[in-house]
Amino acid sequence: MVRFKNRYVLCEVVSEDPRCRQCIEERAVGLAVRDAIGRVHGDYGLACCSISFTVKYLNAYTGTVLLRCRKDSYRLLCSALPFVRQLESRAQRYPCFLNTLHIGGTIRTCQKFLIQYNRRQLLMLLQNCTNEEERQCIQKSLLSCSITEEQSHSGDEEDDDGTETD
Amino acid sequence: MARAEPPAATFERRVLRSAAEHHYLRVRLELPDGGARPSVAQFKQLVVSALRELHGEVGAALPVDVLIYEEKTLSAILRVISSGLVKLWSALTLLGFYQNRRCAFRVLQTSPFLLALSGNSRELVLD
Amino acid sequence: MSVPPLRRLRQVPRHLLVCEKGHARHARSRHAAHVQEHAYNCRVSFLIPECGILPEVLKNTIADVGEYYLVRNLSVHELVAHEFIDAFVKKGSCYALTYNTKIDQDNTAALLPNGKLILSVDKDTYEELGLQGRPSQYSGKKVMRYIITIDLTDSGFHPDSKKHNRVLWALKEKKPLEFDFLLAWYNTGAEGSTLMSYFSKNQIQALKPKITFNTLRDLQCPVLQSNELQGKPDESCSTEELFEWLGAVLNQVSLDNKSSSFLSTYCCPQPNTIVEKAFLCTITGFIIPEKIIQLLEQLCCYFGEPKLAYWLTLTVHGFADSPVSWRESEHGFHKGGENLYNFVIFRNLDYWLQMAVGTNDDCPP
């Protein structure tokens, strides 16, 4: 048996307009990415990427998106992601861009990276916060996430096939 | 002769394996009879649009040169960077329309050497 | 392991360009041998810069390129017949090549001057013929093409031998093969019957090579230095640049494009000089190597008297559909079937030789 090897691309939606958040849904993101691939790599590139392409996970609250495609064509997908300029949903259109965070071979590695990444983000927020209330709030969430991290730490070193960071 | 000639060359041999920087294609555009024939600039535009359709903006950015174009026979010699040969060839093959009229590109000859296009033994016609 | 599709998109078919330099008068120079070993040539062209009118000697050489013959519907067994072998193959250099057959789809035959008859046939024909051969080098796992080599001058190939009878039977009765043949015969001295009279029963046609002259005005020529094969920046051009430039000249491509031009960015390699006029002569037909050697010699003699030109070139194109390129190395078509070579002869009789082959070809000698 041969496994179909996939690549998972973890990215976040960055937008200046807070209303953009309501646009972040699977269909809209998928269409926007497909449109960008079609523009940059043409029919051929779109067809290559379309094999097993899906939006695997999406968090509208944090703007995190996990995309899946075949290992052969992940370069086409990644090179097209910077060309996503807007999300469109329910006849509304908001400018935004996708920030690629991580490319992994499994969803698991992407999740691990995301936890680490968010922890680092929290630390940065902690340094930048201005008043005491904010500080306490962040400290609380920091503590909560370190506990989950401890739990998931058991048996961490194996698996992880073909992780590629950039 | 006043100028001193350089000494006779010693024997040297260099083998270049698949090192050609460019590939060359001799193509012919087929259009239905009647109607406007593209000028050389329109022809190049057509080639670029074929590339854009199949390979997107990345394909359209491939360096393609129209070395010769003959408006009467609609034949041309194209030069393309070696890594883009497959892209160009596939894009030309799949092009179907020119200004909303059916058209087709015929690739007559292709070679990594421009010199090879000047003597095609398959076109040798004896009376 | 299969190649990922995206990398395959950037790959090009294999090709080879061999560049040599040497001196034409050197005792061990093999340039003439290279010409001799390339048996089937369909076009010869030479370019002489700074030359308006061709010297008489060269004109005579061109006129003497000699005629060749086209025989329609000739059975291959006639080339194996003993009368033919005795009258032509053993008495000189006999060249034969099938005309209008495509090496990648049809059966093809060729007779080399050393008396070897080479049949390149597809699988079905091979099995019907029942002659010993070997699978084609370029056919991959599933063999669809076979090469049969018959040595006509072999001592074991006398009229009554079993081998001869078997070949004759196979080609006459088992699977009669008929082709249109291009024929040429070169012999020194001894007069004999001619191909024309020998094949008078068949449809035979004597053909003269087509010769065209062309004077190119204000041509940009690259500067070359005979002992710098790779060229030096700002001093001389490399062989690859020259090869491309020559292709541009022979295809009548305009050389003075700007780098910002929309249509074409090709321009003459640097450094270059503008030559007021250059003489271009093209001979098209079935040209035998002996005549090309004569022409090459005359071109070397061109520099016997002081001339303005620093170098001249002689380009020879092979047949894309011949079963051999150099010597007996197998030749296939793949995407272009190119096999050609080019001489650059310098004023001091140094030469550059560039030999180019496509995908289904061995490395030139």
From TrEMBL, chain A:
Cellular location(s): Nucleus, Nucleolus
Homology family: Belongs to the eukaryotic/archaeal RNase P protein component 2 family.
Subunit description: Component of nuclear RNase P and RNase MRP ribonucleoproteins. RNase P consists of a catalytic RNA moiety and 10 different protein chains; POP1, POP4, POP5, POP7, RPP14, RPP21, RPP25, RPP30, RPP38 and RPP40. Within the RNase P complex, POP1, POP7 and RPP25 form the 'finger' subcomplex, POP5, RPP14, RPP40 and homodimeric RPP30 form the 'palm' subcomplex, and RPP21, POP4 and RPP38 form the 'wrist' subcomplex. All subunits of the RNase P complex interact with the catalytic RNA. Several subunits of RNase P are also part of the RNase MRP complex.
Function: Component of ribonuclease P, a protein complex that generates mature tRNA molecules by cleaving their 5'-ends. Also a component of the MRP ribonuclease complex, which cleaves pre-rRNA sequences.
Cellular component, GO, one term: nucleolus
GO biological process terms held by the UniProt record: rRNA processing; tRNA processing
Primary location recorded for the protein, binned into one broad class: nucleus
Domain of life of the native organism: Eukaryota
This protein's record includes keyword ATP-binding: no
Keywords in alphabetical order: Nucleus, rRNA processing, tRNA processing
Coiled coil: none
Protein name stated in the entry: Ribonuclease P/MRP protein subunit POP5
Pfam families: RNase_P_Rpp14
Automatic annotation (TrEMBL), chain B:
GO biological process per UniProt: tRNA processing
Keywords annotated in UniProt: tRNA processing
One Pfam family, short name: RNase_P_Rpp14
InterPro entries xref list: Pop5/Rpp14/Rnp2-like, Rnp2-like_sf
GO cellular component, as recorded: endoribonuclease complex; ribonucleoprotein complex
Domain of life: Eukaryota
Family: Belongs to the eukaryotic/archaeal RNase P protein component 2 family.
Protein name per its UniProtKB record: Ribonuclease P protein subunit p14
Automatic annotation (TrEMBL), chain C:
Any matching Pfam family: Ribonuc_P_40
InterPro entries per the UniProt record, alphabetical: RNase_P_Rpp40
Domain of life: Eukaryota
Protein name: Ribonuclease P protein subunit p40
Species in which this protein is naturally found: Grus japonensis (Japanese crane)
Lineage: Eukaryota, Metazoa, Chordata, Craniata, Vertebrata
